[in-house]
Amino acid sequence: MGLSDIGEQVGQWLATAGRSLNTTDPGVALLRRTNTVLMVFDDNLYHLDSGRSCRIPDSAVGTRDESSGGSIDGRSDNGAADASSLAMRLATAAASLLADGGDGEHISGISATNSTASSFTQNTLLLLPPADFLATPVNLPGVAAAAIRPALRLQADSLVPGYDDALSVAVSTIDAGSKTADDAQSQTQSQTQAHMAFWLPTATLNALHRAFADQSLFLTAVMPRTMLIAGQQDMVMIDDQDARNQSVLLFRDGVCQQCLQTSKTDLAIPAFHDQWQAETAVLTASAPEAMTLHSADDYRQAMGAQQLRSNALPTTATAYAIVPDAALAARHQFDKGKRLWRVAAVIAALTVLSSIPFLIQTLQLRSLNNTLAEQQQRTAPARADQQAVRDFESRWGVLTEYPAQDVPAMLLALQAEVSPNVLTSLELEEGYISIEGESNDPQGLLQQLEQNPMFTEVDFARATNNNRFYIDLRLTTVNFPAYQEWYFPEEQ
Q1: What angle do CA 442, 445, 451 make, to 5 degrees?
Q2: Is 418 found in the same domain as 393?
Q3: Which pLDDT does position 73 carry in this prediction?
């Protein structure tokens, strides 16, 4: 595998990682991390996995309190204060329940504003009674699944008139891509029929998250408790009853299509009781299966042991989970850190890849240096002999390399070239020769001397006069300037 192939694989991994981070819904990601499911039923808080329970202090949290008018949804005269107080009581009960069970180490002193999802030992899903939510019908044909929640938030004033505070909504958004071809017809029918949205005051949701954070618990989401059961049935009518309220909900493929809610106090009125029986009878007749849940044990039996052990949420149930803003912010910080970590990992990988050629060159250079050192060690005797020769040459070269002027050979060569001309003068100094004489053809004599390999730099020393010639030349075997430059450079 070459460097280009490695770089291409790193690029593909980075693109895949970026798409996975950008396409994962933060709320769904939080729900996947849920490891604790708590349910409010009457005045008790239940841990569904273990079946343990504890009483919620002071008042019946999670239901309408007839003595004080309080409710977890804040719909009372002192709604915000009551919701905050009840949220703290509920969080205290949750901390006590989980601490007694030893489900995880209880860590105190963690601020809600500075916490992240990974900082808590318990990622908690809180199941509240359906009566604590405001249920409104939804009929938005032709609206894309991703746009249903924003559309409902824009219509909150008309759907929940007379309520001025901010509301958080939970509603099923059927994703066509997640269904098989056999489910397409059922999905189309569900989209054309009205279904239900469940509202909870945002202030109440945030109060619950802060209260749980004060107890070192991370509140992942809040959800009506019936949604966990409905996700396991194709079509079912669920009758949820506790000490104070009764809710009847009709589900098709995990989507709540109808919801009726009332208090047990209202059912004491005969006229209202008869009307309630008539309306619920219609729902009962339209569902092939009916479930009556009157206790926490009924919920545990309906959910099944496998789901209780895994804390796994049905896909359809996650749509009805309302995630607090603080939890989403914590998830955003977690995703941001994850992105930074991945970017840092990619940068580190690219740095390593870019440094590989330099590392290879460094290793090659080190190998060559080692080879050179070995060769130098092997040739050390030869280099010592060579150095001795150089020392000898530097000491005796002045004499042995002195240019030898072979005068007899030079005279014989001149005689052969000059004859039958007359040579009247000859000077020889450091290989340079100056001759003077008489010749009928001085130019021809010059050419003859140039062709002789023993002579070089042949030229007239001065202009000839009639038959008189003056010629300078040098012996090719003698180079006094080179000798002086080699042995006597300081004199040059």
Answers
A1: 145
A2: no
A3: 59
What integer pLDDT is reported at residue 118 of this predicted model?
40
- 436 contacts: CB under 8 Å, gap ≥ 6: 423, 424, 425, 426, 468, 469, 470, 471
Handedness of CA 242, 247, 252, 255 (dihedral sign): negative
Residue 68 placed within a domain: yes
Specify which residues 135 forms β-bridges with: 198
Report the distance separating Cα 18 and Cα 319, nearest Å: 25
- Segment 446-475 mean pLDDT: 87
Distance of CA 387 to CAs 381, 384, 394, 399, 487, Å? 10, 5, 10, 19, 18
Q: Tell me what pLDDT residue 108 has.
A: 32
Whether residue 468 sits in one domain with residue 431: yes
pTM summary value: 0.59
Residue 369's domain comprises: 352-398
Both tokens of 475, joined, read 């012996």
Same domain assignment for residues 364 and 436: no
pLDDT digits (tens, 9 = 90+) for 38-89: 999 988 999 988 889 999 887 544 444 444 444 565 555 555 667 788 889 9
What are 430's two structure tokens?
A: 């450091």
Are both 272 and 360 inside the same structural domain? Answer: no
Closest to 240 (Cα-Cα) out of 255, 223, 261: 261
- Going by the DSSP 8-state scheme, the letter that residue 424 receives in this structure is E
Is residue 427 a part of any domain in this protein? yes
**Sheet with 53-55, edge to edge strand ranges:** 53-55, 44-47, 36-41, 123-128, 218-224
184 & 54 share domain: yes
Residue 414 makes CB contacts below 8 A (sequence gap 6+) with 423, 426, 433, 435
